[in-house]
Specification:
Alpha-D-Glucose-1,6-Bisphosphate, Chain A, domain 3; 4 domains; alpha/beta; 38% helix; five-stranded antiparallel sheet; 452 residues; seven-stranded mixed sheet
Amino acid sequence: MNGKLFGSSGVRGLANVEVTPSLAAEIGAAVATCFKPLKVVVGRDTRTSSIMLEEAAVAGLLSGGADAWQLGIVPTPVLAFLTKRLKADAGIMITASHNPPQYNGLKVFNADGMAYAMKSQDKVEETIGKKQFKRADWADVGESQRADENRLYAEAVCRKVKLSRKWHVVVDLGCGATCSLAPQVLKSLGCQVTSLNAQADGYFPARSPEPNMESLKPLAKVVKCLGADIGVAYDGDGDRAAFIDEKGNFADFDQTLAAYAAHVAEQNAGAVIVTNVEASMSIEKMVEQHHGKVVRARVGDVYVSEEIKKRRAVFGGEPCGAWIHPQLHYCPDGILTSALLLKTLEDEGTMLSEFVVQVPVYPIVRKNVACGNTQKHRVMKQLGDRLRSAFPEHKETSDVDGVRLTLEEGWILVRASGTEPLIRLTVEGESLRTANNIMEKGTSLVKKLVKE
């Protein structure tokens, strides 16, 4: 791979093209070199290339003198949880999460089960760039062993969540890493579980590994046909959850996030909730009703989790179904999310359709403006002051991820694409007319800056 290795969700790219066994071995060796871990837990998702990359990463770790505990197929949040629970010094997960099957990647966690922050990522990248790997003496090469510790995670979830109702849950496992564990946990909580796509298959033949309205239409039909209480679907590695209500309707990500965040704020006086800069303003409106505070971080669960820890927040989530519950660990967790949402519905005495309908829905408009990669830095550097001048009525400004202005009747976010020669604009308004007016003004300004 050329350029920076780590993105907002670890290292990711085309398997055996960009993310190769040699790169995986170098990442393993770099982790062993930089942080001198004694024990590293390693897991993988169901992708066809994951075993290949797992063995390569383990080889790199062993060559640096670290011992590896190979957990086999596990959801990413389980790997994160077990990194801390087993008192490992680091964890490496082989996954490309919700990406198509031809992709794969590696995500590295510290001893607290948090994904490596930028400083640690940079150390790994620098070591790989300079090829300055520690190579253990023949007598000190690390050892590997197979371990199955999923029960520790299942027990932790069941201790945290107690359900009194026998929910009928239809769970679409998408042939991913949650195939065996998610139904087991839900059954242990007392749920009646109907499983779909429960065979591990790295080709993801049943649906896309990304759960969204389109890919979950079959799940919606089954929920409605069976008269089930709720439908749940996970992405390829189980760090995201999406929901179908009892009527067979897809539960909007922003609405579900805001409704749950409001419940958390109501239960925790003065609660701090973390989300990203792209989430709907409905989350502020819902959380502030219960005297909570919303903090916005950069897009990416790595940054959201860092902000949660920094602010001692009680909950954080992104509007893609990646929710973080810091009481257990700092990784987005689809299985725990589904259990806690069921508990919340029980506490509220309601069903999912009624739970989310309380959240206002605002129109969101998105546009891209062509901008050469060499121009992006200049345009974004000049944009802040220009945008503030164009919207003198703005109430708040943020530059944690691009430039975001909070306005009286909406907001505008301008970010440079990390992968394409584009500047991306996102606008939300209290009405479509308002959103279009904000977008027109913002787009005109960005186009003018690009031409200068």
